[in-house]
C-alpha cells in the first residue's frame, strides 16, 4: 500500500502540470487581458469587454484594442510589469517553477500575495463543502438503505418523488426561496441574510461562537447539499439493492441470521464501496461547483467569488493560483478516497491491482 500511495503522490505533479498547460494555453487566445484592463481604466472606458475591437490575447506582440492615443513607452512598460515582454513558454516555465514551491506571487490588481488571498478565502469554501458533504451523507445513506429495504412500497414511492423534486430544483432558486421564507425576505427572519459570522462574533463566548457559526451556515449548506443529497440517496439505494439480490445474502439468511445482521454485517461493507467511490467527486463538486453562485447569493467571501473576480479582471496570478490549489485539493481527495476503500474493506489491495 505504501508503494501505491507513493506512486499516486508522484503522479500529482505531472497531473497538475497538465492542468496548468491546458489553461495557460487557453488564456493566450482569450481577448481582454490584464493590459487591456489597465488601458480601459486609464482611458476611463469602464468594462474592457465592450471596447475590444479585434480580439486576441496579450501575448505575441498584438496591438491592443483601445490603446490608441497612449504612448508606446507606456504600453511597453505595462508589458514588462506584467511579464508579457517574455515568450509564453518562458513565462509558463517560470510560473510552474514557482508554483511547485508554492510561491504564487502577488495579485496584479489587489496588491496582496496570492497565497494570502487564498488562505483568507479558503475556510469559507471548505466550510460549505465539508458541512454540505457530511450533511448529504448523514441523510442519504440511512435514507437510501431504508428505501432499498422497502423497495416498491408506498414509502419508496413518495420519498423518490421528493428526491426527484429536490434534484430538479436549481440551487439558485432554492437559495432565493429560503431567503424569502426564512431570512427576512417576506416572511420569517429566522436566519441571517449574509455572512459567515455576526459583527460581534469576537465578543461572544465559545458556545455563542459555535451557535452563531451554525446559525449562519445553515441556509448555504442546505442549498449546497440538496442536489448531492438526491444523487447520493439513489446511488445508495441502488447499490444496496444490487447487493441484497446476490447469492451470499440468501445464504446468510438461510443460516438463520437476522435481517439486521445480514444488512449491516454483510451487505453494508460491500454496498458502501461504490458510495465511497463517489466521495471525491461529490466533495470537490460541492466545494467548488456551486461556490460562486452560493457565495454571491449569501454574501460569503470564499474562493468561488475570488476566482470569479480574478477571471473578470484577468488577474492571471490569482486565476492560476486558485486553479492550482483547486486541482491539488481534488487530487489529494482522490487519494483519500482510496484510503477509505481500504478502511471499509481491508480485502482490497491496490498494490496487487496495480501490479
TrEMBL record:
Highest taxon in the source lineage: Bacteria
Protein's GO biological process: microcin transport; transmembrane transport
CDD domains tied to this protein: TM_PBP2
Bilayer topology: Multi-pass membrane protein
Annotated GO CC locations: plasma membrane
Compartment(s) where it occurs, according to its Swiss-Prot or TrEMBL record: Cell inner membrane; Cell membrane
Positions of the ABC transmembrane type-1 domain: 122-341
Keywords: Cell inner membrane, Cell membrane, Membrane, Transmembrane, Transmembrane helix, Transport
Transmembrane regions listed in the UniProt entry: 9-26, 122-141, 162-188, 213-236, 271-298, 318-344
Main location: membrane
Family: Belongs to the binding-protein-dependent transport system permease family.
Name of the protein this chain belongs to: Microcin C ABC transporter permease YejB
Record organism: Paracoccus aurantiacus
Amino acid at each position: 500500500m505504501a508503494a501505491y500511495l507513493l506512486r499516486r503522490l508522484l503522479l500529482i505533479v505531472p497531473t497538475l502540470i497538465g492542468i496548468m498547460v491546458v489553461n495557460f494555453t487557453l488564456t493566450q487566445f482569450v481577448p481582454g487581458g490584464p493590459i487591456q484592463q489597465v488601458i480601459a481604466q486609464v482611458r476611463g472606458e469602464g468594462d474592457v469587454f465592450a471596447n475590444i475591437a479585434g480580439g486576441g490575447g496579450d501575448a505575441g506582440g498584438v496591438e491592443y484594442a483601445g490603446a490608441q492615443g497612449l504612448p508606446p513607452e507606456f504600453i511597453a512598460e505595462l508589458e514588462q510589469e506584467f511579464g508579457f515582454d517574455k515568450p509564453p513558454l518562458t513565462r509558463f516555465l517560470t510560473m510552474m517553477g514557482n508554483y511547485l514551491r508554492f510561491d504564487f506571487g502577488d495579485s496584479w490588481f489587489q496588491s496582496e500575495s496570492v497565497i494570502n488571498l487564498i488562505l483568507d478565502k479558503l475556510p469559507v469554501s471548505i466550510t460549505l463543502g465539508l458541512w454540505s458533504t457530511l450533511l448529504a451523507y448523514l441523510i442519504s445513506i440511512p435514507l437510501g438503505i431504508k428505501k432499498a429495504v422497502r423497495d416498491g412500497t408506498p414509502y419508496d414511492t413518495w420519498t423518490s418523488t421528493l428526491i426527484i423534486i429536490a434534484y430538479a430544483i436549481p440551487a439558485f432558486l432554492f437559495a432565493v426561496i429560503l431567503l424569502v421564507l426564512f431570512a427576512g425576505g417576506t416572511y420569517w427572519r429566522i436566519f441571517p441574510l449574509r455572512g459567515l459570522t455576526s459583527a460581534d462574533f469576537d465578543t461572544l463566548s465559545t458556545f455563542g461562537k459555535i451557535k452563531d457559526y451554525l446559525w449562519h451556515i445553515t441556509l448555504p449548506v442546505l442549498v449546497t447539499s440538496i442536489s448531492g443529497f438526491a444523487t447520493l440517496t439513489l446511488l445508495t439505494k441502488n447499490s444496496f439493492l444490487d447487493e441484497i439480490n446476490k447469492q451470499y445474502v440468501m445464504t446468510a439468511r438461510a443460516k438463520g441470521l437476522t435481517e439486521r445482521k445480514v444488512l449491516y454485517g454483510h451487505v453494508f461493507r460491500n454496498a458502501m464501496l461504490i458510495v465511497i467511490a463517489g466521495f471525491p467527486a461529490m466533495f470537490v463538486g460541492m466545494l467548488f461547483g456551486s461556490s460562486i453562485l452560493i457565495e454571491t447569493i449569501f454574501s460569503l467571501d470564499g474562493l468561488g467569488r475570488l476566482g470569479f473576480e480574478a477571471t473578470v479582471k484577468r488577474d492571471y496570478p490569482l486565476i492560476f493560483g486558485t486553479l492550482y490549489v483547486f486541482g491539488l485539493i481534488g487530487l489529494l481527495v482522490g487519494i483519500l478516497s482510496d484510503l477509505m476503500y481500504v478502511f471499509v474493506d481491508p480485502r482490497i489491495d491496490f498494490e496487487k491491482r496495480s501490479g
